[in-house]
Amino acid sequence: MRIKLTLVLVVAALLFPLTSAHATKVFKNCTELNKVYPGGVALPGAVNAGGMTKLTPKFDKKLYEANKKSDRDKDGIACEK
Fold first, then answer.
1. Which of 37, 40, 44, 60 could be 79's S-S partner, Cβ–Cβ 3.0 to 4.6 Å?
2. Residue 58: which residues within 8 A CB-CB, separation 6 or more?
3. Order of strands across the sheet with 41-42?
């Protein structure tokens, strides 16, 4: 009985990990990122160093961290428009 319970718990842990429901997407470039997030992605509280933008970015720390290589001006907003 104990072995069956352990086996069920192991299988459940593999099928339903405790991490977030979906992985944070790493985009190849700004063109790909802007298809999903037209205003870019930003750290919460980030202010655009380049002045006014046309669109509001998606504020999400994990998403920004995964794509910060695309933040050329290092203002906390990647691929802003």
1. 40
2. 37, 39, 40, 41, 42
3. 58-59, 41-42, 77-78
Strand stretches in the chain, DSSP E:
41-42, 58-59, 77-78
List the chain domain ranges.
20-78
Amino acid found at 70: S
Query: What SS3 class is residue 75?
Result: coil
List the chain pLDDT tens, one digit each, 81 residues: 667 656 556 665 666 555 444 579 999 999 999 999 999 999 999 999 888 889 999 999 999 999 999 999 999 999 998
In whole angstroms, what is the distance from residue 49 CA to residue 26 CA? 23
